[in-house]
Structures are given as C-alpha cells and as structure tokens.
Amino acid sequence: MSTARTVADDGGSDGGNGLASFRRNIWWGLAGTVACVLGFAVGDWVLDPAVPAGLRALTGLSTAATIVTCGVLLGRRIRDEAPSTGWLVTASCVTGVAAAVPLALGNFGIWSIAPAAMLSVLVMFLPARRAWAVLGAALLVLPTVGLITALAMGEPDVGHAVWMPALMVLAFGPAMLGMLRGWQVAARLDDARRLAGQLAVADERLRFAADLHDIQGHHLQVIALKSELAARLAEADPARAAEQIREVQHLAGDALRETRALVQGYRRTTLDAEIANASKVLAAAGVEVLADVDTGLAAALPEAPRSLLGLVVREATTNLLRHSRATRAAIVLLPDGTGARLLIDNDGARPARPDEEARPGGRPAGAGDGTGLVSLAERLDAVGGHLSWTGDGDRFVVTATVAG
C-alpha cells in the first residue's frame, strides 16, 4: 500500500497549529466513533451473565484490542504512513476473534461490528476506487456469512443475520472515507497556501531584481559617461572636469537614495518623474530632448500601466546613453483609443552587426542587449499593453501602448 503525501508531525511543515489541530480532531472523530460503537454494542453482551465467563473475557479483550488497533491504524493513515505487516496481522487476528465468538454463540446482532469497523479503517489505505470496491464486496460477503451461519444453526429469523452486517458496512465505510476525504482536502489546501506564499516571495524577488536593475543600470551608465568626460577634460579644462565630477557625485547620491528606498519598499516609479529625470540626464549627456507629454492623460492612467510606462522611459533612456550616438531625442505621450501611447525616438541608432541582421527575430539596431526591453514587454503584455522597438537607418523608436 502506498500514500501520496507526507505530513510532518505537529509543529513541523504540516501548516502550523491549525492543520495539526484539525488532524487531531479527525483522528479523535474516527477513533472515537469506532470505540463508542464497539464499546456500547459489545459491552452489554460481554456483561451478560448468561454468556460463559471465559467467552465473555475473550470477546471483551479482543474487542478492546480491535479498538486499539483501529486507533493505531487511523493515526498512521492520517500521517500518510503505510501500515506495517505486524499491525495488519494483529488487526486480522483480534478482529477475527471479536467476530467469531458472538457469531458462534448465535448473536447475529454484534458479530459484524468489529469486522465492518476494521475493514473500513483498512480500506482507507487504498486508492479511492479500490476502497469503494472492497466495501462493495464486504456488503455482499458479510451478509452472506451471516445468512449461511444462521441457516446452519437453524435460526428461524435469518433477516436479522443479513441486514445487520450490511448496515454496519454502510454505517462505517462511507463515514470513514468521507472524513478522510475532508482531511485530504484540508491538507491540499494548506499545500496550495504554502505554494502561493512561495510564489509570492519569488515574484517579489523578481520585481526587486528588475527595479534594482533599472535604478543601477540607469545611473551607472550616466556616471560612467560623466567620469569618462571628466577624465578627458582633466588636463585641458580642469574647471569643466570638476563640474562633471560634481555631477557624478550628485548622480551617485541619487542612485544610493533610490536604492535605499527600494530596499525599504517605499519607492514607486512614476511616469512624470521618469520623463523629467530622462530629460535631465539626456541633456547632461549633450542630447537635445523634446518632451511632449499630456499630463492629464498621464495622471488618468491606472497605477500599474503608468508605472510600467515610467520603466519604459528609464530603460529606453539607459539604452540610448549606452548604445547610441544620438544628438536629438523625443519623448511623446498621446492618447491611443481608451489608453495611451508612449514614443521615445532618437537619431543615434548604431548600425546592426551582420550577425544581428541575419538572426531571425534578432534585436533591432540600437536596442542594446534587449534584456530590459524584453522583460518590460512581458510585463506590459500581462496588463493588456504592448511594447515594440524598431530601427530605420540612424533612427530608433521605442513604442509602448497601455489600456486606460
């Protein structure tokens, strides 16, 4: 017999005290049902002085052993542990004695309780279809045994010998399997909850990595350009070189502050701020910038699309600084149906290498390594938007559309 799920002990990975408590409740419900039914039904007969004392003691002990064995097996099943051979042999022996003694003495009312209960516990270790098939077979076998025994003993009323075993199977079997099903559903829901938590953590890590790439890549590229310019001017024009170094210092401070804000979880990318920042750093790099932005449209966009457009501005600006020789650039935001369209245009696209032109689906000239834009394209697709980039001669255009 095999099981499909491993559940840790209380306090382990079973989902905390809630699921552990539910597991205990399931066990008490199942084991308590078996103990109460067997105890009350067989107890009166065991205490009947008309029954030989030796047989009463044997039946009482075997019934008690049946209750204990059922409890142990139920515990193993709920923990998804397979029953050992020793416990299976014990279950067969004690249940056989608990059933055989009353049946041999003609008590057709209680003999079937122990085998019906034990059988209902054992089928819980089987797959669902096989479990119901075994219960169906027991629904035929136990009444047949009762009927044959009653006829052999000359019992005038054989109906009681037939319907009582059937009633016990119907009472124990569905109840046991139903409560087990409830436990399995709860355990799977807990697994799903834990998996959802793990996915949320993974998504947050990816978001953090993307934001960190946007912040550091953008600022570091400008810092690199400014530092290179300062190095060239150090001897020819020390005053301008010092000015460039001060701008590098300012940009490094901005990068540090934004990184700290990102780590603390407070930073939010805004479209207006990104366009203003892009205009500033492009102008500092000697690029003439035209920004034509409908501020009312930008403010009316939902937060998620607006934030993504801000990231597109940042990534396109970083690529422009890193990979182009642009002298002019334009950033335009205009209505597009119920949403908005963002265009970032520059005149400094470098020619594509031969391997890029030959590669199907390769990046267009001026797109850099494409990693940032590809990632942003996927994120825009997720919110119903679209991102594309095209190169024509020395012109390179990034276009992003979002729904309003």
UniProtKB/TrEMBL annotation:
Keyword Ion transport: no
Compositional bias segments (type: Basic and acidic residues): 347-360
Residues covered by region (Disordered): 345-370
Domain Signal transduction histidine kinase subgroup 3 dimerisation and phosphoacceptor: 204-270
Positions of transmembrane segments: 26-47, 53-74, 86-104, 110-126, 133-154, 160-180
Keyword Ion transport: no
Any matching Pfam family: HisKA_3
Molecular functions (GO terms): kinase activity
Alphabetical keyword list: Kinase, Membrane, Transferase, Transmembrane, Transmembrane helix, Two-component regulatory system
Entries under PANTHER family matching the protein: NITRATE/NITRITE SENSOR PROTEIN NARX-RELATED (PTHR24421), SENSOR HISTIDINE KINASE DESK (PTHR24421:SF63)
Protein name, entry field: Histidine kinase
Organism: Promicromonospora umidemergens
Species lineage: Bacteria, Bacillati, Actinomycetota, Actinomycetes, Micrococcales
